[in-house]
Design a protein that fits this description.
globular; alpha+beta; PH-domain like; 3 domains; phosphatidylinositol bisphosphate binding; three-stranded antiparallel β-sheet; 7 helices; 303 residues; seven-stranded antiparallel β-sheet; 28% helix
Length: 303
């Protein structure tokens, strides 16, 4: 448990105890949650202060030129917002898009003309006249478009969400040890934005107050139970998106996750299956040279 990535925040409502404390740290490049409480309020406050003191000492060594007033705000942080929303999205974008791409190739081989196929303007000719010389040059680009454009492949599911600085994480249960997925929320300068409502073609949401987060790569769809919840989440997202990104956020790798690769992939969890107790997720941040700052979430098939 490295002090560098340690955080503590009081969570009496979530834990169900007035002296509840949530401790987070990085474990195998994933955020690990520990929920603790004590019947003696002073004891839990002492632990909280001890964590902050250890963090302060670490930051003094790591940033010898920084003043105490600069370091104190970094000792611990509270979450910007937490609560339930419904979410949807690809169960595994890599595998889903691979299957879609192969299906597109097979369809092109069987039919000389494919109309009404979903495609961007630059790829429409690939589907309408796949036999032309010009199309052959664009065929690979069109297949790549299909491969990299996630579609809604699962219904909406109610999940617990936590906004931790620029990381939006979701959990099946508020007290889960690991998040099932997370997405990095960048700034408006890098083409991130939040919209009220859902795309017209969206289906399966039980809650009617939709939110769409637009990233350079894809859209993330959510639904809130009440209009007040929707407004609070939108306000939170807008504050994050309107805030300029820090130099370390432009570095391309989240703290503690060195060696990230450019493409997302699904991996089995501990024990080699999808049903293990820990998170079966890897997150990759794409290169800053392409102004492509979107984390993607990949999850196990959910029960």
């Amino acid at each position: 448990m490295k002090i560098e990535h340690l955080n503590a925040t009081f969570q009496p409502a979530k834990i169900g105890n007035p002296h509840g404390l949530q401790i987070t740290y990085l474990k195998d490049n994933s955020t690990r949650n520990i929920f603790v409480y004590h019947e003696d309020g002073k004891e839990i406050v002492d632990w909280f202060n001890a964590i902050r003191a250890a963090r302060f000492h670490y930051l003094q060594v790591a940033f010898p030129g920084a003043s105490d007033s600069d370091l104190v705000p970094k000792l611990s942080r509270n979450y910007l917002k937490e609560g339930y929303m419904e979410k949807t999205g690809p169960k595994c974008p890599f595998l889903v898009q691979l299957a879609q791409s192969l299906a597109v190739l097979a369809l092109m081989a069987q039919k000389p003309s494919v109309s009404n196929s979903p495609s961007p303007s630059g790829c429409s000719k690939c589907f309408e006249t796949p036999g032309s010389c010009v199309v052959r040059e664009k065929l690979f680009q069109c297949v790549i478009w299909h491969f990299l454009t996630p579609q809604q492949t699962e219904g909406f599911k109610k999940r617990w969400f936590t906004m931790d600085d620029r990381r939006l994480m979701y959990f099946k249960d508020p007290l889960d040890a690991f998040a099932r997925g997370e997405v990095f929320i960048g700034s408006k300068e890098n083409s991130y934005k939040v919209l009220e409502g859902l795309p017209p073609s969206t289906q399966g949401n039980h809650w009617q107050h939709g939110i769409t987060i637009v990233t350079p790569d894809r859209k993330f769809l959510f639904a809130c139970e009440t209009e007040d919840d929707q407004l609070e989440w939108i306000t939170t997202f807008q504050k994050v998106i309107s805030r300029p990104m820090l130099p370390q956020e432009y570095a391309g790798v989240f703290p503690g996750e060195a060696g990230c690769q450019p493409w997302p992939r699904c991996v089995p969890g501990a024990g080699g299956d999808w049903g293990s107790g820990r998170r079966s997720l890897l997150f990759w941040w794409k290169p800053i040279s392409n102004i492509n700052l979107s984390w993607d979430w990949l999850g196990r098939p959910e029960e």
